[in-house]
Recover the amino acids of this structure.
């Protein structure tokens, strides 16, 4: 790229100002990736609408802003953050709280759970489990075009680490609550690494919350390794205020006969961009990518999915649905790549959207690249209003128009929610979505931010 | 109960109903028969409050009130029920939630408290048994993946739940095998009371073997051209509609 944009320059400066501080608290192995990633970032820069993958999303609204400090919490902040409790009833999970992308200093940095499972801080794991980290860190988060991934590699220093050894089934999911809180407008990045070995089973729930009304920009990368015959589910619940921008890049690498799902539930947020990369790296692997997004006011929600069928006889399914109100906008870009050797591929994709006003806008783009012959692929996209016949059917039973509309929207959303495998969370999502559709704020009761 | 006077209606500027007059008293079952395209379903749509049908002339009085100014949901709460010719599939909305909402809206309208969860489920169970609907159907999304017969039985089930004063069944018999037809008809017969009325719209006579109407009307080209007792249905079954068409044309010529 010739002549770096002003916006990119900001982050080059940010890197230069902070890299010493960041490196001093990070493990040497994570540091060893930084300078190369920084060079690549300088080349690629912050994506613009000229980049095909960011065609419908203007990042400048959030990136072209002066974020004062690269904020590292002090112990007292962690004590406060630990008081945050998710109120999902009956959700029996191992909880982890990340504050501004950092693992609390007040707890044991790594916890061992029955079966030899480890959960905790990535930065700590990079020292304690160097073998695992060297085998997996930075191996899956790869993009030739997205500079934000390099920006993360260049500067992130902590995040969640999970290791589930061969053959171990984790009975309870892990719930990560990502909190951002600051007195100043803040840019933060974190990095997660999840390793699910052969024949193991594991689910993780990641909840994104904002705890103070400042302007926030988060750029997070998650790498997941799913070994042969292993099962993995990721459920992301995004509920942030309108001055928050969340960018996630999730890379799920699957070995043969493994089954993995990603569920992106976006309830609230100023600008949200979720990129989900599924790599089907062995015969018989199955991947499921689900997404639900509800937007209003000036919110913008962009889902980018990349499914890479690299081996024969794999199955993939994408289902993304959105309800857009007011002048909100959304984008969906679903890519399916079927490589020449990937015979017997089944790949499906569907994106359905309801626009509630004339001002709401949705861009949807399927992108199928098929280089094998024996392939079953389908894709479909719809953008429309609520079904008038269905509305009348409900009204003709005595249900008023407002309630009938809500029921239809809820039914529309429920098709995505029903795929969540953790039952208490599924019920909770049903309730949150209903509240959100009613126009009540869907924040959890324990959230301290009044961001109406 | 229902008085329709010189009702005229059009869809998209095309005149469909050309002056209908009907008087339905409590406890009566009226059958409306007629060839395809005669306006039977349009009449049902007008009575239920479908907005795409434009009433151009005439009045409809229901229990002493002007029906045409009421919204679809208010008509339902006042006791009008439309059994759809083509029931709508609504994925993601469960039958339980749908019926609970509808029943409680009706109760609210009558100034009653909402039913408790257990009372509601008990009511569901009783009505399911009454109309012989497969109890598993009620656990699914509204009409989603139901067979044609199941959808029609589900209409009768909803009717049983809502206990209407005036039920309009729009070709509920079409596409039913004989067993389903019997179940649908039994449902109607069980729900029949001296204070409620039915309008049974049908193309064929065979439903009327099971539901015995008090009055049979023949609708043709937007008008009621013949009204008689239940024997008229048999005559239509035997002779078809052509003789009616001829009679109407002769009348116009004369």
């Amino acid at each position: 790229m010739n002549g770096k944009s002003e916006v990119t320059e900001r982050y080059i400066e940010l890197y230069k100002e902070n890299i010493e501080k960041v490196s001093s608290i990070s493990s040497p192995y994570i540091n060893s990736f930084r300078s190369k990633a920084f060079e690549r970032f300088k080349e690629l820069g912050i994506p613009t609408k000229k980049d095909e993958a960011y065609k419908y999303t203007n990042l400048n609204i959030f990136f072209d802003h002066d974020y004062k400090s690269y904020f590292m919490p002090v112990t007292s902040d962690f004590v406060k953050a630990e008081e945050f409790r998710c109120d999902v009833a009956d959700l029996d999970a191992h909880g982890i709280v990340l504050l501004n992308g950092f693992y609390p200093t007040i707890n044991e940095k790594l916890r061992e759970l029955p079966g030899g499972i480890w959960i905790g801080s990535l930065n700590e794991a990079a020292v304690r489990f160097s073998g695992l980290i060297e085998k997996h860190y930075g191996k899956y988060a790869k993009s030739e075009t997205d500079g934000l991934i390099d920006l993360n590699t260049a500067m992130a220093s902590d995040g969640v680490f999970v290791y589930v050894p061969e053959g171990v089934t984790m009975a309870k999911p892990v719930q990560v609550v990502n909190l951002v809180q600051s007195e100043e407008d803040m840019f933060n990045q974190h990095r997660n690494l999840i390793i699910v070995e052969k024949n193991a089973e594991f689910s993780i729930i990641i909840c994104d919350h904002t705890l103070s009304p400042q302007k926030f920009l988060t750029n997070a990368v998650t790498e997941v390794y799913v070994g042969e015959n292993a099962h993995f589910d990721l459920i992301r619940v995004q509920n942030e205020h309108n001055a928050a921008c969340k960018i996630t890049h999730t890379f799920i690498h699957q070995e043969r006969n493994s089954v993995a799902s990603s569920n992106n539930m976006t309830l609230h947020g100023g600008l949200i961009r979720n990129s989900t990369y599924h790599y089907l790296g062995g015969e018989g692997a199955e991947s499921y990518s689900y997404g639900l997004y509800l937007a209003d006011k000036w919110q913008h929600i962009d889902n980018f999915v990349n499914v890479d069928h690299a081996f024969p006889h794999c199955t993939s399914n994408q289902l993304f649905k959105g309800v857009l109100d007011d002048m909100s906008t959304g984008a969906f870009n679903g890519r399916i790549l079927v490589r020449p050797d990937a015979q017997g591929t089944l790949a499906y994709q569907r994106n359905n959207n309801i626009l509630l006003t004339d001002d709401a806008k949705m861009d949807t783009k399927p992108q199928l690249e098929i280089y094998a012959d024996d392939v079953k692929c389908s894709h479909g996209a719809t953008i429309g209003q609520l079904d008038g016949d269905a509305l009348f059917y409900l009204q003709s039973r005595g249900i008023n128009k407002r309630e009938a509309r809500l029921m239809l929207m809820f039914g529309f959303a429920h098709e995505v929610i029903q795929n969540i495998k953790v039952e208490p969370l599924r019920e909770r999502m049903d309730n949150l979505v209903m509240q959100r559709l009613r126009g009540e704020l869907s924040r959890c009761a324990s959230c301290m931010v009044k961001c109406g | 109960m229902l008085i329709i006077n010189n009702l005229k209606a059009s869809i998209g500027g095309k005149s469909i109903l050309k002056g209908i007059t009907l008087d339905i008293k409590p406890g009566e079952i009226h059958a409306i028969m007629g060839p395809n395209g005669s306006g039977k379903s349009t009449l049902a749509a007008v009575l239920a409050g479908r907005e795409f049908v434009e009433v151009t002339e005439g009045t409809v009085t229901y229990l002493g009130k002007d029906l045409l100014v009421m919204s679809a949901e208010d008509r339902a709460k006042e006791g009008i029920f439309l059994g759809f010719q083509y029931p709508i599939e609504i994925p993601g909305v469960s039958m339980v939630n749908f019926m609970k909402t509808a029943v409680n809206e009706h109760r609210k309208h009558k100034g009653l408290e909402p039913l408790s969860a257990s009372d509601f489920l008990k009511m569901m169970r009783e009505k399911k048994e009454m109309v012989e609907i497969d109890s598993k159907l009620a656990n699914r999304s509204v009409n989603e993946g139901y067979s044609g017969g199941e959808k029609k039985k589900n209409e009768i089930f909803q009717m049983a739940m809502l206990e209407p004063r005036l039920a309009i069944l729009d070709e509920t018999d079409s596409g039913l095998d004989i067993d389903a037809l019997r179940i649908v008809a039994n449902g109607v017969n069980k729900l029949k009371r001296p204070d409620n009325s039915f309008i049974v719209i049908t193309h064929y006579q065979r439903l009327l073997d099971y539901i015995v109407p008090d009055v049979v009307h023949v609708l043709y080209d937007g008008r009621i051209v013949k009204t008689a007792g239940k024997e008229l249905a048999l005559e239509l079954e035997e002779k078809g509609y052509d003789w009616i068409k001829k009679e109407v044309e002769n009348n116009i010529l004369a």
Q: What stands out?
A: Helices of chain B lie at 40-48, 72-77, 95-109, 117-130, 148-162, 178-191, 231-239, 242-253.
